[in-house]
Each structure stands twice: as C-alpha cells, then as structure tokens.
Amino acid sequence: YDHSDYRNIKNLSIVFIGQTGYGKSSLINKLINKDTFETSDYRACTKVLQSADFFLHHKMKHEKLAYQLSFVDLPGIGENDKADEQYLQWYKNYIEEAAVVVYLFRADKRDHSQDEYFFDKVFDKSKVENLICVISQADKIEPLSREMELSPTQKENLEKKKNDIKSKRSEERRV
C-alpha cells in the first residue's frame, strides 16, 4: 500500500494476553480467518511478540485519514520465571497503548493464581473499560464429553466460570 496519500494514520491495537497454552494464537487465527500464527495442541508456540496488521482506508479520502489495525499476539505467561519477567514488561507496555485488551482464561483451569497476579501487578486498572475477558477451550470443561456440542452440565459449569470471573473483575474495579 502507498501510505503517502494519508496525513494521519491511527494505530489501533488489540492485544491478546493469557497464560501459555490458552489459545491466544488460535483465537486470532479464527478472528482474521487465516492460519497466520503457529498453533499446537501439545506445546507452547509463541515465544516472540507477533502481530497481524491491516491497513484500513478511511471512506472519506479527502480527510487523508487511515487506520492500522493490529492483532497483537504476546507470548503466554507461566512458562518459566525468567521468560515471565520479560513478557510481563511487554504486557505492561502494550496494555498502555492498546485500544482493546483481550485476556484469555481456560475453561478447565481451577487455579487462577497467575491470572490474579497479572491483574494485581501488571494490568493497568485505568484500562478496565478496554478489557474483554474470554473463556477459551470450553469443550474441556467438566464433565468431559466427546460430543460436538456442550452438554447441559458443561454449559452450566461454563456459566459458573463466567460468573466467577465477572465477580473477581468487579471486586478489582471497586478497589
């Protein structure tokens, strides 16, 4: 693209955050309808910051305005302490600039201590209006089933998980 026709290019970043193996890359691939980022069912793939960038022309060209929309895939936290130190700093920097922050929780995970650490120590509370919490891997919620659709009990457990996450986020907003 020739960007020289535009006086002003606004950057809009959607940042995807969560623990290792939670499906951040898979989710972005689905959203952009392209297998851009490597995924794996058995190992963490994202070791470096990646993004899929789209240049969007403004419909009123005389305003000479365009947007660059970036889906930013950050490495997952929780792999090891040394990597987390670097990744958490990246998270802070990208959250500061993000238009939207998407945080992934796993449906089948019960221990959320690392998620809580992130929200206590890393997440900028002033960005809470830009936060979207996503529950990934809903098919793995108890009781496990090999069916193509979630069972009524799985749906009920998923709703409980959603309410638990909502109540924790609401508590943080009051603090």
What is the overall shape?
globular
Distance between the termini: 46 Å
Model regions low in confidence, pLDDT < 50 over at least 5 residues: none
Largest sheet geometry: 5 strands, mixed
The structural class is alpha/beta
> What's the mean pLDDT score?
81
Q: Tally the helices: what do you get?
A: 4
Q: What level of helicity do the residues show?
A: 25-40%
Counting DSSP E segments of at least 2 residues, the number of strands comes to 5
Oligomeric state as shown: single chain
What's the structural blueprint in terms of helices and strands?
Layout (H helix, E strand, L loop, with lengths): L7 E11 L5 H9 L17 E8 L7 E9 L7 H17 L2 E7 L6 H10 L8 E6 L15 H23 L1
Parallel strand pairs: 1-3, 1-4, 4-5
Antiparallel strand pairs: 2-3
Characteristic terms for this protein:
alpha/beta, 5-stranded mixed beta sheet, 175 residues
Q: What would you note in describing this structure?
A:
The chain is of the alpha/beta class and 175 residues long. Helix content is 34%, strand content 23%. The chain is built from 4 helices and 5 strands, in the order βαββαβαβα. The protein has helices spanning 24-32, 81-97, 113-122, 152-174, and strands at 8-18, 50-57, 65-73, 100-106, 131-136. It is globular and about 55 Å long. The N and C termini lie far apart (46 Å).
